[in-house]
Amino acid sequence: MTAPVPVIAIDGPSASGKGTVAERVAQALGFHYLDSGALYRLTALAALQRGEPLDDAQKLAGRAAALEIAFRDGRTWLSGQDVTEALRTEEMGVAASQVAAHPEVRARLLERQRAFRQPPGLVADGRDMGSVVFPDAPLKVFLTAAVETRAQRRHKQLMEKGMYAKMPDVVEELRKRDARDTNRPVAPLKHYSDAIFLDTTNISVDEAVASVLEEWRNRAAR
Ligand code: DC
């Protein structure tokens, strides 16, 4: 029997910095990286491009199953079209959160996510990486920050991209998204007891990355 490919699962709410931390940890270890939120965003985009509603679970599940995706050089392609910028908008985040509430969509995306588990290892970020997609992951992290801090980070990102946004609106949107992702019946965002809790409210990205790497090395040394 060969040992299973190791996975570091990093889950947390929107704008917690988990994507940045996960990518940096993957880089440091030479592991693959899965941004699972991108799959939900791509499903939402594929439906919206065709003018389809986000409450038709069967149709959305079909879209999820048929997605033609490529991740190359930090860019994301859908059916041969570069959709990197379109995916990162707030609207697409909200649409993804709506799409992700359908169990039919989640079921279709399950195997696609697991296919990223390739040697020498994988760092995956999302909402249910440790609970549903990779329950046997040897390291699970729940990465979060206070909603005000997350809103400040998101606000800064939006302004840097030239997208004007009012701070109270950003806070309100994050609260709504947290509520939707946390309260849904399937694969809700939750801090499970087998995940280490990492609050980045008062620490930098570098410190968060170092902390995950230290946990990983401690585990490997055991
Ligand atoms: O991580 P993100 O902001 O790109 O995710 C967008 C939405 O997709 C998020 O609000 C909820 C959903 N999602 C999910 O339900 N499960 C995941 N593993 C990843 C994302």
Account of the 3D structure:
It is a single chain. The chain has 222 residues and is an alpha/beta fold. It has one domain (7-220): P-loop containing nucleotide triphosphate hydrolases (Rossmann fold). The chain is 52% helix and 15% strand. It contains 10 helices and 8 strands. It has helices at residues 18-29, 36-49, 57-66, 84-87, 90-99, 103-114, 129-133, 147-160, 167-183, 205-221, and strands at 7-11, 32-35, 69-72, 75-78, 81-82, 122-126, 139-144, 196-199. The protein has a 5-stranded parallel β-sheet with strand order 2-6-1-7-8. It has a 3-stranded antiparallel β-sheet with strand order 3-4-5, with no helix packed on it. Helix 1 crosses helix 10, helix 2 (36-49) crosses helix 5 and helix 8 crosses helix 9. The chain is globular. The mean pLDDT is 95. 2'-deoxycytidine-5'-monophosphate binds at residues 14, 36-37, 40-41, 93, 96-97, 100, 126-128, 177, 181.
Instruction: Give the N-terminus to C-terminus distance in angstroms.
Output: 21 Å
Return the domain count. Answer: 1
SS summary, helix count = 10
* Unreliable sequence segments: none
- Oligomer kind: single chain
CATH topology title: Rossmann fold
* Class derived from helix and strand content: alpha/beta
Number of strands: 8
> Mean of the pLDDT scores?
95
Tell me the name of the CATH homologous superfamily: P-loop containing nucleotide triphosphate hydrolases
What is the helix content? 40-55%
Bound small-molecule species: 2'-deoxycytidine-5'-monophosphate
Strand content: 15-25%
CATH hierarchy class name: Alpha Beta
The strands making up the biggest β-sheet line up spatially as 2-6-1-7-8
- Biggest pleated sheet: 5 strands, parallel
Q: How do the SSEs run, as a string of H and E?
A: EHEHHEEEHHHEHEHHEH
Rg is 17 Å
Overall shape: it is globular
The CATH architecture assignment turns out to be 3-Layer(aba) Sandwich
